[in-house]
């Protein structure tokens, strides 16, 4: 009898309920038991897990590693998918392996390169991957100089934190004065240059921003699965243009993504994002973790989370080729059940892993479902 696989997802995005669904519906018909931790007691990830605990707040990265090692040993975790404190966790890979846990994450060197976007851009440029023009700014004067140079070239300027995830802190610069026009409709990412400059002049400490031209659509996110031999097993592009989403295997996106994943050893799951600068795709960002939209590859007949877990356990899935490319789709919201009470059941130390006293409720919807247009 094949034993079940115990997978732990620490503090992660709500969309990873679909990651969990795919693990349970794996084509190997292998039993999967999922443990989840989060600081938000109402996270849908906790509700979707077989067992769940609240994470302690305020831990330093080093203290969090100790907490994680304890969880892995106590819960007999086979595969740990770290998002929170990923850099600290992967630096202790040998200690996790010693308690029988494989990390589904890249090595610390790769995580370090892509934590800082400036270091990342310089590194990928060195291997021939195109990047947009960029300036690192820490003051009002540096920001103004970068904006003026971009505008002189006919571009709109935008900025985002030099380190960070997703679209947090992304803004587009406008010189249009603030007026009632900006108070109608929904909020936008546009901010007035004079307001930003004044905020910087009054700030108590310097910022650390990356300023660049606003890049054009489509946005293409290439999901990669890479082995510890630095060879890519899976590379599929997910396209985004406004509301419309789709898939691509075009080499103008896949080739530079493979070069990055293999060249920097982005083992296991990564997400490499491109946008257009004129008629050329340029690198926008690299995520050293599974993308929130990874489950959308199921529309191409691919179960990427299960292939990644197999690879982490030493069961190489080989080259994973989509049998087809799904039709264009969009993303909508739908209900997802939470636990009956807001605090998940807490468990004492156990000598063996257990199933929850109350099974996780069956989903009534698929959360951010994908629907054909």
Structure, explained:
The chain is α/β, with parallel strands linked by helices. The strands form 4 sheets. A 5-stranded parallel β-sheet has the order 3-2-1-4-5. The chain has a 5-stranded mixed β-sheet with strand order 6-10-7-8-9. The protein has 11 helices and 17 strands. The chain is globular.
| Morphology call | globular
Number of helices: 11
Strand order, largest beta sheet: 3-2-1-4-5
Please state roughly what percent of the residues sit in beta strands, choosing from under 5%, 5-15%, 15-25%, 25-35%, 35-45% or over 45%. 15-25%
Structural class: alpha/beta
Percent helix range? 25-40%
Number of strands: 17
Low-confidence parts lasting 5 or more residues at pLDDT below 50? 347-373
The arrangement of helices and strands along the chain is EHEHEHEHHEHHEHEEEHEEEEHEEHEE
**Largest sheet, strands/sense/barrel:** 5 strands, parallel
Radius of gyration computed on alpha carbons: 22 Å
Distance N to C terminus: 43 Å
Secondary-structure blueprint of this entry?
Blueprint: E1 5-9, H1 17-24, E2 32-38, H2 44-48, E3 51-54, H3 61-75, E4 79-81, H4 86-90, H5 93-98, E5 102-103, H6 108-115, H7 117-126, E6 135-137, H8 140-152, E7 157-161, E8 171-174, E9 190-192, H9 193-202, E10 209-213, E11 216-226, E12 232-241, E13 244-248, H10 251-263, E14 268-277, E15 280-287, H11 304-312, E16 329-331, E17 370-372
Parallel strand pairs: 1-2, 1-4, 2-3, 4-5, 8-9
Antiparallel strand pairs: 6-10, 7-8, 7-10, 11-12, 11-14, 12-13, 14-15, 16-17
